[in-house]
Design brief:
The chain is α/β, with parallel strands linked by helices and 248 residues long. It contains nine helices and nine strands. InterPro entries: GP_PDE_dom, PLC-like_Pdiesterase_TIM-brl.
Length: 248
Amino acid sequence: MKLKTQLLAIILSMTATAFAQEYNPLRIGHRGAMGHITENTVESIKKAVEMNCDVIEIDVFTVKDGFLMVHHDDKLERLTNGKGKIEDYTKAELKKLLVTEKYSIPTLEEIIDAIDRKAVLNIELKGAKTAEPTAKVIEAYKKKGWTDADFIISSFKWDELEIMRKNNNNIDIAVLTGSEPADAIEFAHKVKAVAINPYYKTLNQENVSKIKQANLKIYPYTANEPKDIEHLKELKVDGIITNFPERI
C-alpha cells in the first residue's frame, strides 16, 4: 500500500511538471482585435482585452502638432473619410474624421487608458520621429503607477528603435523585419532587444534555432489561418501576432 502511495505521488508530481512546462505562445492581438472590430480603435483594443490577449499591438504616428495618434496607414483614405497623410493633420482635425463611418482615431493616451494594464501594450513606431514622444508618454504613465514592463516597443524603422533605447534603457524592444529573420540578430543585440518580430512565412526550423540560440524571443506577424498558426506552434515561437486572438 505504501509503495502504491509513493508511485501515485511520483505520477502526480510528473503530471504537474508536464503541465507546468506546457507550451502556450503569447496571444498577441494585431491592431487590437481587428478580425472583429476595426483596427487601431479604442473599441478594438477593448475587444482584445475581453479576449484575454497577453499583448495588444498598435501603430503610432506623430502628427502636425506633436501628438501621437494611433493609425496604421500613413494615408487616411483606406479607413477614414479624410484624405492625404495623417502626419499633415493636427489632433483636432483628425478627431473630426470617422473611421469606417463610426469610430474615431485615438491618441496613444486613449489606448493606454483603455488597456488599463490588463495586457502588455506593443507600440509599433510606424512613423518618423515617434520614439522620443512615445518615450515621454511612457514616462508620464510610469508616474501614474505603470512600469516599463507594461510596454514593448517595435518598429521596422530601426533608427527609431535606437532612439528609443537611448531614451529608455529598460523597456523591451522587438525588432520588426520582413526579410531573413536571423539577419536581424546583430541589430537586436545592439539595441538590447528581447525579441525579433518576423513575417511568419519567413520562419523555418533553422532560423528559429538561430534566433533562440541568440537568446531572443520570436513573435511572428500576422498569422490568421489555423494551419499557419499550427505551423508556428510546431516551431515553438514565443508568441503569435494575429487578427483573431481566439485562434491561438
